[in-house]
Amino acid sequence: MSAVAAISLFRSHIPPIRTRVLLTVRALQFKPCPFHCGPSPRLSNSRFDPDGSGKPTTWDAFGIWDDRIDEPILLPPSIKYGTPIPKVSLARVGGASLLGRRSENEDRLRASQISDTVLYFAVFDGHGGSQAADFCHKYLETYVRDLVAKEEDLELVLSKAFHEIDKALATQLNISPDVATLPTAGSTATVALLRDGIELAVGSVGDSRALLCRKGKAIKLTMDHTPERKDERERVKSSGGSVIWNSLGQPHVNGRLAMTRSIGDFDLKNSGVIAEPETKRISIHHAHDAFLALTTDGINFIMNCQEICDVISQCHDPKEAAQRLTEQALQYGSEDNSTALVVPFGAWGKHKSPTSPPPSAGASPPLAAGPENAAPTGQ
């Protein structure tokens, strides 16, 4: 049997899927510079240069759907994890914050890069004034950055950062045992850290939320901290606090606060209101995961996670999605501040909601929404 015939017989017995896997692994492991520019067009077996054009292949080339986001492949993480990982660009992230019917917008949002490999996304919803939300918006990122530099576990980073920002806020407000009246300002905090475009860790206190859209379905990444949760209610009571229901049937800690965990609210620290976040870690699968969404209760109390997922999935880009989501909450009757942060992943645009969205009503505000640019334009 000739060598050519033997090779052909061998190849005919390799399943097609295994062949593609072998080609992908070969490209990841043995092509440190896959974006080679040759003198003329050539054919290539590499998924990083499938048409031999020499042009950098992006995640866009891995799908056949509309509204894909054209971002380059992150080669070192792709080699490290053995799967193509697209870049998650801050320029693509969408953010919006609307006043609603409140006199002041106490919501804040933030998206930034805190290291070569880690991205930071956060929403804060202040109450009792904007002091706590402003403080978190300005300083929590710094605590996370310092901890990421020396701590590998992102969940532990979030837990330590939440405690440190809570202590720093107490110092800022001049809290001491001699203070007769403790400040009542507080804030929710929902923070997501994305490392290498694939490792996602989320930490949260309060009732702001994070969700992941996977294959068009919403995966809830956070749990609300309210007295309605039996475990939270029992913890508050065991700490000396009480849970009182108002005339609308809504439970509050000591009759004042609708959440059991927060940054600030120092008058309730001895009643079981803590700054310890619940954390969750999950791997992103860019072939199936379309986006991460962080939202405040102006949206969450009006729309469930799947409804949020469906509204975002109707939109052409994350900036439109964040604006559409906040406006939709107001149309549904929300009177609170409504804030959304939408982070696109590899499957953006792949799983469309069957309902077409109405025309966009306007552009989204900057991603570092603070007191000076919190978009107080809601009706």
From TrEMBL:
Q: What domain of life?
A: Eukaryota
Residue ranges annotated as compositionally biased, kind Low complexity, are 361-371
Enumerate the spans annotated as PPM-type phosphatase domain.
92-345
| Start and end residues of each stretch annotated as Disordered | 347-379
EC number(s) in its UniProt entry?
3.1.3.16
Which coenzyme or cofactor does it need? Answer: Mn(2+)
State a single Pfam family of this protein: PP2C
Q: Which coarse location class applies to the principal site listed for this UniProt protein?
A: mitochondrion
Q: One GO CC term of this entry?
A: mitochondrial matrix
Q: Name one GO molecular function term.
A: protein serine/threonine phosphatase activity
Q: Which PROSITE patterns match?
A: PPM_1 (PS01032), PPM_2 (PS51746)
Keywords noted in UniProt: Hydrolase, Manganese, Metal-binding, Mitochondrion, Protein phosphatase, Transit peptide
**Cell compartments where the protein resides:** Mitochondrion matrix
Family statement drawn from the similarity comment of this UniProt entry: Belongs to the PP2C family.
Write the protein's name: protein-serine/threonine phosphatase
Q: Which organism is it from?
A: Conger conger (Conger eel)
